[in-house]
Amino acid sequence: MQSLWMILACAMFAIMGACIKVAAGLGVSLPQIVLFRGVPSVLLLLVWSISTHRRVWPKNPRLHLWRNLSGITAMWMGFYALSHLPLPTAVSLNYTSPLFITGYMLMWGGARNDFVRAAAVVMGFFGVLGILRPSIGDEQFFAALMGLGAGALGAIAMMQVRQLGQAGEPEWRTVLVFSACVCLTGLVVLFAQGWQPLSLNAWLAAIGLGVSGLVGQLAMTRAFGAGKALLTAALQYTTIIFATLLGIVFWDEHPDALAWLGMALVIGAGLLSTWRTYTESRRHRRA
To answer: pTM to 2 decimals?
Structure first.
């Protein structure tokens, strides 16, 4: 049953990416997209925490600051990539975060002689090359760099979320603080740029990305909280499959053989690094 929660989360995140692409095409600005992504989460979690008399202010603001600097920057970069690249390409680049974490472990984390992690990085590298080479033109090169940057900064944010958990911060508060800071950055940029008038279809796309993102976040939290860690982490890569299907159906974005191979390598590398991390943590617990 918990696997179904993760599959639901992946489907929702793929739909969110599609809504971002539609919204951008209908004239919704990037800060508006960011704001619509954060508002539903803030409202739901704030109402829930107040009604259940839970502490809203974080225990360790400094850790949240560093997590939000990396995480929010990654979100802006990832949303830019989703707005300017084919959907499966942008989503695949956003899901390179585990590969960057593995690279960090090899270079600075004391895992220099780890053949499994090294193989995952090599697979992921060739996978990214396969995704980019047939899928983007020169005019999309900057957006591709933004997508890769989102993956790299997302890796840093993921490691900082782990530190927050070790410091005793509950997941809901971490999401609430992050979502509130997301909204704040969107409002600041909107204050400088001004609000872009939206059509009815643009409003529907913007609301759709906020709702699908919120449902995806809640489903993913439920899956990781009650499911088997290895299987749940592995299933997150089905987002790439859902995004590819949406790209084919709605934008006629048919990846060629090299792009399919690239996505398979990225997924395989992510699964390999996830398995390695899981088995290593189990071995440490038994020691």
So the answer is: 0.85
